[in-house]
Amino acid sequence: MLSAAKRCFSTSRVSPYKVTVLGAGGGIGQPLSLLLKLNHKVTDLRLYDLKGAPGVAADLSHIPTNSLVKGFTPDNSGLKEALTNTDVVLIPAGVPRKPGMTRDDLFAINASIVRDLATACAENAPNAAILVISNPVNSTVPIVAQVLKNKGVYNPKKLFGVTTLDVIRASRFISEVAHTNPTQERVTVVGGHSGITIIPLLSQTKHSTMDEASKEALIHRIQFGGDEVVKAKNGAGSATLSMAQAGAKFANSVLQGLDGEADVIEPSFVDSPLYKSEGIEFFASPVKLGPHGVEKIYSIGQISSEEEELLAKCKETLKTNIQKGEKFVTEA
After folding, report:
1. Is 110 marked as a binding-site residue?
2. Which residues contact 306 (CB under 8 A, 6 or more apart)?
3. Is 292 a catalytic residue?
4. Which residues bind substrate (predicted)?
5. Domains in the chain, ordered, with CATH?
6. In whole angstroms, how large is the CA radius of gyration of the chain?
7. Could you tell me which residues are beta bridge partners of residue 237?
């Protein structure tokens, strides 16, 4: 008799998807690739990096799931081959944070990496959904958008900044304070993906009456949770395993949307109308995912006076971050 897991796998009907990871040999890329190999929606997994991707692909290819894995390097048009006709591209490429660094400190290095990969996506995978993980997301997503615009292939419904790590951290951290099951906690996180631009809407949870001191400490921890990992790794990197899980979770939601599954809603940093009148082109809020990518962008809903103050600070910083990314491309 088949086990429950095998029965589920053998009877499920999903469309086959081609998924490409750019930066697959890195600290995020390797565990992310593993999780994607285990996703039954992914039947063609392409892994690209400057080096190491063929080895990662060979390793993963021994796992008995219904997907083919191939690794690519810059040799012999590897990037083009990794991207051609792919459905979803994840970009974790770049350098990790080190102690004392902020996400913005990464900009000078990661901006050029993301720009070049975005150019390759525009030329070889213009219809793919692009999921940007490389930090600082508040600036790298606008970089990708500007590159795609310059190439005449920009589709705002297919570009996502992955902010899911903030969401899963919020669920975990709030459960530690409230002594609850983290898998049952749902916290909407809006704004951006760096420091004070991260706004967990605690007023919309069942813990809205939490005392002010606990609430302030919790918000700060969610906003700067990445610093805990950078400090604990003592110069050896930043959040890689939790980020890989977050990236794989969001990628699965995108694939569910492309597959036509109902009510797939995740917060994401996207080209948004919510605050465009204030000059803020991108904003993270709950997004409904569908066959064409973004189907609907939801407002942040009713928030507390304290969260209004956080939002005001977020907007100021976010606007600067977005403009920094756009200028990097337009003034190059």
Report:
1. yes
2. 203, 215
3. no
4. 97, 103, 135, 169
5. 15-161 (3.40.50.720), 164-330 (3.90.110.10)
6. 19
7. none
Identify any residues that bridge with 44 across adjacent strands, giving them in sequence order: 18, 68
Between 305-330 and 137-150, two packed helices, what is the crossing angle to 10 degrees? 40
Q: Which of 268, 230, 247 lies closest to 95 in space, CA to CA?
A: 230
325 closest CA partner among 269, 249, 248, 267? 269
Per-residue pLDDT tens digits of the chain, which is 332 residues long: 444 444 344 344 567 999 999 999 999 999 999 999 999 999 999 999 999 999 999 999 999 999 999 999 999 899 999 999 999 999 999 987 777 776 667 898 899 999 999 999 999 999 999 999 999 999 999 999 999 999 999 999 999 999 999 999 999 999 999 999 999 999 999 999 999 999 999 999 999 889 999 999 999 999 999 999 999 999 888 999 999 999 999 999 999 999 999 999 999 999 999 999 999 999 999 999 999 999 999 999 999 999 999 999 999 999 999 999 999 999 87
Cis peptide before 54 (omega within 30 of 0): no
49 is in an annotated binding site: yes
Residue 191 assigned ligand-binding role = no
293 is in an annotated binding site: no
Please give the Cα distance from 124 to 118 (Å, whole number).
10
d(CA 107, CA 112): 8
In angstroms, the CA 252 to CA 248 distance is 6
Q: Which residues contact 128 (CB under 8 A, 6 or more apart)?
A: 20, 83, 86, 87, 88, 89, 121, 158
Q: Is 135 annotated as a binding residue?
A: yes
